[in-house]
From TrEMBL:
Coiled coil: none annotated. This is Ring-cleaving dioxygenase. Pfam families: Glyoxalase. Keywords: Dioxygenase, Oxidoreductase. Residues 5-131, 156-275 form the VOC domain. InterPro entries: Extradiol_RC_dioxygenase (IPR052537), Glyas_Bleomycin-R_OHBP_Dase (IPR029068), Glyas_Fos-R_dOase_dom (IPR004360), VOC_core (IPR037523). One of its GO terms (molecular function) is dioxygenase activity. PROSITE patterns: VOC. SUPFAM superfamilies: Glyoxalase/Bleomycin resistance protein/Dihydroxybiphenyl dioxygenase.
């Protein structure tokens, strides 16, 4: 029983419309699900992914209109990486980011891979990572209807960066409990990998005891989810987490996958999520994300929920 890799990352936006515009029209990701936060249906929950919404490709956002600025620091998921096919794709992206005046850094090598750091319009910290030399967890397939050439499109989630005041505590849960392996070091980071390894299954851990705790807001990351095969394995993971004394949510049915939440010792929220059943459960795969999707237990409140949400026009790019 192994963690297969990164499942999804969920972040915060203050404006769903601008968020949708950036991640679909500029980054070329596909909106595979327009739904609501199941714990607070008054806010949108948007899922961007590859063309099929494959596990390991989802970057999601909760809309909190009154969210303040993020003040970066420790106890945080400090960067979310997005995979691209090769080094040539990074050159394309550098030109595209310059064209649209998106804040970014020079192309830099990290852990043997070319990378390109950028920030979205809310200072969400992102990094494009080349798969040219990558081996391990397979990537997804870029959406063929995106405004980005398919050969340069985003193929999924890459390494997740954690910034903590005490790295040993997080290392212990990654290695001793979750079965990650230490894969190497670069700069101030220690790299841990799970399952088949590679970019889609890595956590890059940074220790910073010299900076304050992050104050989250728009542009911050709420949690990271890791892939497990199915509900049976998720139940086994729940037992393991409980045996080690970590309070947890118990199994939660998110309809598109089942989840378990807990906080690691540096207070970062971890989720374990099943690969299925997937986003095509309630929508045709050719029309994902075009209308407001609600899980069955919220369907009877559709009219109330739709009234509370600001209109957000989403449609397939033709």
């Amino acid at each position: 029983m192994k963690i297969k890799g990164i499942h999804h990352v969920s972040a915060i936006t203050a404006n769903a419309k601008k968020n949708y515009d950036f991640y679909t029209n500029l980054l070329g990701m596909r909106l595979v699900k327009k739904t609501v936060n199941q714990d607070d249906p008054s806010m949108y929950h948007l899922f961007y992914a590859d063309r099929e919404g494959s596990p390991g490709t989802d970057l999601t956002f909760f809309e909190i209109p009154r969210a303040g600025h993020t003040y970066p620091g420790t106890h945080s998921i400090s960067t979310t990486s997005l995979r691209v096919k090769d080094d040539q794709a990074l050159k394309y992206w550098k030109e595209r980011l310059e064209k649209f005046k998106v804040a970014h850094d020079p192309i830099t090598e990290r852990f043997g891979r070319k990378t390109l750091s950028l920030r979205d319009h809310e200072d969400q910290r992102l990094m494009l990572v080349s798969d040219e030399k990558n081996e391990g967890v397979e990537s997804g397939l870029p959406w063929e209807k995106a405004p980005v050439p398919q050969e340069h499109g985003i193929t999924g989630l890459g390494p997740i960066h954690l910034t903590v005041p005490d790295a040993e505590k997080t290392k212990n849960i990654l290695v001793d409990i979750m079965g990650f392996r230490e894969a190497g070091k670069y700069n101030e980071f220690t790299v841990f990998e799970s399952g088949q390894g590679g970019s889609g299954a890595e956590v890059h851990l940074e220790e910073r005891a010299d900076i304050p705790r992050e104050k989250p807001g728009r542009g911050s990351v709420h949690h990271v989810a890791f892939r497990v095969e199915n509900e049976k394995e998720l139940q086994q993971w729940q037992s393991i987490i409980q045996e080690h004394g970590f309070p947890n949510s118990g199994l939660v049915d998110r309809y598109y996958f089942k989840s378990l939440y807990f906080r690691e010792p540096n207070h970062i929220l971890f989720e374990l999520a099943t690969d299925g059943p997937g986003f095509a459960t309630d929508e045709d795969i050719d029309h994902l994300g075009e209308s407001l999707a609600l899980p069955p237990f919220l369907e009877e409140k559709r009219e109330e929920i739709e009234t509370s949400l600001a209109p957000l026009k989403t449609q397939s790019k033709e």
